[in-house]
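Structure first, sequence second, as always.
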């Protein structure tokens, strides 16, 4: 008997190539799996390469089915993103906790915002986590909830919030 999730999710791999422009971003996105149940989630998660195997500037995205990990997606464009910079040694634990909270809809009792997904990007000395909101609402409760999932982790810098509308505007100027 499968334990169905409230939403279906897609896991994506983001392969960066030198010289890739913003226009070519989609060419580096590849769907890894679709998750409909708890069993699907663990099958997908356990078969994804480890974060330590990611090349620099590459990453993973876990997004609601039908939502692409880009600001311009119709489900993201009126929302916002939280960015968290974390140490490499904390990446796997934080990634797993965020995924379980998101996919299991555990956050809904604590936060008044809905989420479209979460991303992790491998940088030279750190990981950058991005939490995708479907509404442009800055809320300290939101980030405090996510930070509370892994209280033993020290962030490299304070979390930042940005509106997808503003990001699109600044990227096109």
């Amino acid at each position: 008997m499968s334990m169905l999730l409230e939403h279906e999710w897609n896991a994506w791999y983001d392969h960066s190539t030198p010289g890739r422009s913003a226009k070519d971003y989609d060419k580096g996105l590849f769907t890894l799996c679709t998750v409909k149940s708890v069993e699907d989630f663990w099958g997908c998660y356990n078969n994804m390469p480890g974060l330590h195997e990611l090349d620099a500037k590459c990453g993973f995205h876990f997004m609601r089915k039908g939502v692409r990990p880009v600001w311009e997606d119709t489900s993201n464009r009126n929302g916002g993103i939280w960015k968290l910079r974390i140490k490499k040694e904390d990446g796997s634990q934080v990634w797993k906790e965020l995924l379980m909270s998101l996919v299991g809809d555990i956050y809904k009792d604590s936060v008044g915002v809905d989420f479209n997904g979460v991303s992790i990007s491998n940088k030279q000395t750190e990981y950058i986590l991005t939490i995708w909101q479907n509404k442009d609402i800055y809320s300290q409760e939101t980030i405090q909830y996510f930070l509370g999932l892994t209280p033993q982790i020290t962030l490299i810098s304070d979390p930042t919030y940005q509106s997808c509308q503003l990001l699109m505007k600044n990227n096109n100027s």
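Margin note: The chain is about 25% helix and 30% strand.
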